[in-house]
Design goal:
The chain contains 14 helices and 15 strands. It is α/β, with parallel strands linked by helices and about 400 residues long. The chain folds into 2 domains: about 140 residues, Aspartate Aminotransferase, domain 1 (Alpha-Beta Complex); about 250 residues, 3-Layer(aba) Sandwich (Aspartate Aminotransferase, domain 2), CATH 3.40.640. The strands form 3 sheets. The protein has a 7-stranded mixed sheet, sandwiched between helices. A 4-stranded mixed sheet has the order 1-2-3-13. Strands 11-12-15-14 form a 4-stranded antiparallel sheet, covered by helices on one side. A hairpin with a 2-residue loop joins strand 1 and strand 2. The radius of gyration is 21 Å and the shape is globular. Bound molecules: ligand IF1. The site of ligand IF1 has 18 residues, from helix 2 and helix 5.
Length: about 400
């Protein structure tokens, strides 16, 4: 048995089978590269589902982590710590909102946004008790808590996990008229991904988000954007909603906020929501806003800004898709994306096999729903490195 086979058979024995990973066991990483237990090096074109936009173990982020580990790691929110205020000042300055609320995982950020919207709905909009309704989209992915899977349309995520949380209405994605029609007197918010990642990097029509903003404003409901995957430079802007100059009422963020080293998530919103929604004791988390998280997230944002990662993602993403579209394979249906978030869709269910082929040739990417390969390298990748990857991808896919 190879080392790889040994590690995988152990995991098969002792881990719940809630994933079906590619057969590679990674033990080291640096920048855009990961190394497996056999010593083989791969280009990481998944970036932990866009959580390592800054590259693996970015030295400034690792330094912030080590420095903080030597001073203070956790206080809980029973006491103040000297990192949360300065970090939230940075985050609110970057995003242009009054306040932030920090959690740990993406799903918790979405839960926080749902709770904020509901409390705002009851306290400010006068919605009758337990009647608040949130509109969401077909094909959404917002996380895996029981409430979030309650409004998933993916049977794999949902089946067998009921009873489900009521209060959500599902409409088609990329359909402003459907949004307009779905809003009623008890609707408080529209929750949407600016690009649907899990659904296969579905990029909506130009102007969609802007239209949604106009409708939600006119009808007096909140626009909540889930930027957990699309945020922090991934799509070529700091947030994907910036592409259409849309200012959501609440932004959910996570993943790359923690620089690939620590789970950090949260929401930002203005006082009219934050003050209506939250009062001492009604929401929180043991680890949310802890000093390690804040020190790391602070450095993670600095890296994105200082290294102009959104601009890089925009330029390199255009180049990458232009080259992918040249691949001669009649089974390729579409290449789509924004910035360095790209989906390559096949006409048939072959994306997993192609992911395996790419892996054997040193390029790590993962399929979604069998028909689409998602390419999302760290945003620190150079054009030369991307060109090398394209050579492999073109050879294996043509
Ligand atoms: C898994 C996908 C990516 C997300 C958006 C919230 C969350 C996610 C837009 C929840 C998480 C992940 C989780 C991961 C697979 C992955 C994923 F394939 F499911 F769609 F990235 F593409 N909103 N996305 O994309 O964040 O609670 O996980 O921190 O296996 O669940 P989390």
């Amino acid at each position: 048995m190879t080392k790889t086979e040994q590690f995988i058979s152990e995991v098969d024995r002792v881990s719940a089978h809630n994933y079906h990973p590619l057969p590679i066991v990674i033990s080291k990483a640096d920048g855009i590269w990961v190394t497996d237990v056999e010593g083989k090096k791969y280009l990481d074109m998944l970036s932990a589902y866009s959580a390592v936009n800054q590259g693996h173990r970015h030295p400034k982020i690792i330094k912030a982590m080590i420095d903080q580990a030597e001073r203070l790691t956790l206080t809980s929110r029973a006491f103040h710590n000297d990192k949360m205020g300065p970090f939230l000042s940075k985050l609110t300055r970057l995003t242009g909102y009054d306040k932030g609320l920090l959690m740990n995982t993406g799903a918790e950020a979405v839960e926080t946004a749902i709770k904020a919207a509901r409390r705002w709905g009851y306290n400010e909009k006068g919605i009758p008790e337990n009647q608040a309704k949130i509109i969401v989209c077909d094909g959404n992915f917002h996380g895996r808590t029981t409430t979030i899977v309650s409004f998933s349309t993916d049977p794999t995520c949902r089946t067998g996990f009921g009873p489900f949380t009521p209060g959500f209405k599902i409409i088609p994605y990329d359909d402003p008229a459907a949004l307009e029609n779905a809003i009623d007197a008890n609707t408080i918010a529209f929750l949407v991904e600016p690009i649907q990642g899990e659904a296969g990097v579905k990029v909506p029509s130009e102007g969609y988000l802007k239209k949604c903003r106009e409708i939600t404003k006119e009808r007096g409901i909140l626009l909540i954007c889930d930027e957990i995957q699309t945020g922090f430079g991934r799509t070529g802007r700091m947030f994907c909603s910036d592409w259409e100059n849309v200012r959501p009422d609440i932004i959910c963020m996570g993943k790359a906020m923690g620089g690939g080293v620590y789970p950090v998530s949260g929401i930002v919103a203005d006082n009219f929501i934050m003050e209506a929604a939250f009062s001492p004791g009604n929401h929180g988390s043991t680890f949310g806003g802890n000093p390690m998280a804040c020190a790391i997230a602070s450095a993670s944002i600095d890296v994105i800004v200082d290294e102009h990662l959104p601009e890089r993602a925009m330029e390199l993403g255009e180049y990458f898709r232009k080259e992918l579209r040249k691949i001669d394979n009649p089974n390729i249906k579409e290449v789509r994306g924004k910035g360095l978030l790209t989906g390559l869709e096949f006409k048939t269910n072959c994306a997993h096999d192609y992911s395996l082929k790419l892996m054997k040739n040193g390029v790590l990417a993962k399929d979604t729903h069998g028909t689409t390969i998602r390419f999302a390298p760290p945003l620190v990748i150079t054009k030369k490195e991307l060109a090398d990857a394209l050579e492999t991808i073109t050879r294996e896919l043509a």
